[in-house]
Specification:
The protein has helices spanning 2-35, 41-46, 79-85, and strands at residues 50-53, 62-67, 70-76, 117-121, 132-134, 150-152, 159-160, 181-183, 188-191. The chain is an alpha+beta fold and 194 residues long. The protein folds into 2 domains: 1-38; 46-191, Rieske [2Fe-2S] iron-sulphur domain (Rieske Iron-sulfur Protein), CATH 2.102.10.
Length: 194
């Protein structure tokens, strides 16, 4: 009879110990699994809006910043560059920016909130290369007298004007995309929020 009592006690002990070990193992597996459902600090930072001080960008100068791992072009256009945009309408695929590639507040001939400051994602809409800023008016390799400055994609030859509108007859099917942005004051924009 003593053997049965001892065996019963051992069985209970082993059952409880096994259940406890199983619970610890389950918690050990579940913790990293649940933690993986939440974004890392690096991922959170990648989606954060960024501030750009446009007062430090000289007239005619382009600044490139990074937002969500993408190059963001911030261009301070000269008065002449803004005036020249309308003369290029006939050479553009989507001169009125009718495609959904920009926020509603940038659906205008200059594709920006303020005439001089243009903000765009610096990724060609053809195959994702980054176009080069070519402000040189009349560049022979880009169309001569019809070139009023803009962006040239060296990968396959796509051309965009200084509002990010794509020229006809190039591989890129559409204009450069305008990210959401807003002015925090006259000198600072916030890229990533409307």
């Amino acid at each position: 009879m003593d053997n049965k009592e001892i065996n019963q006690g051992r069985r209970r002990f082993l059952s409880v110990a096994t259940a406890g070990a199983g619970a610890v193992a389950a918690a050990g597996v579940a913790t990293p699994l649940v933690a993986s459902w939440f974004p890392s600090e690096r991922a959170k930072a990648a989606g954060v809006s960024i501030e750009v001080d446009v007062s430090k960008i000289e007239s005619g100068q382009l600044t490139v910043v990074e937002w969500r791992g993408k190059p963001i072009f911030v261009l301070n256009r000269t008065e002449q560059q803004v005036k020249d945009l309308s003369s290029l309408d006939g050479q553009m695929v989507d001169p009125s920016s009718e495609l959904e590639q920009q926020p509603e507040y940038c659906k205008n001939p200059i594709r920006s909130i303020k005439p001089n400051v243009w903000v765009g994602i610096g990724i060609c809409t053809h195959l994702g290369c980054s176009p080069a800023y070519r402000p040189d008016v009349g560049a022979a390799d880009l169309g001569g007298s019809s070139w009023k400055g803009g962006f040239f994609c060296p990968c396959h030859g796509s051309k965009f004007d200084l509002a990010g509108r794509v020229y006809k007859g190039v591989p890129a099917p559409s204009n450069l995309v305008i990210p959401p942005y807003k002015y925090l004051n006259d000198n600072v924009i916030l890229v990533g929020e409307d």
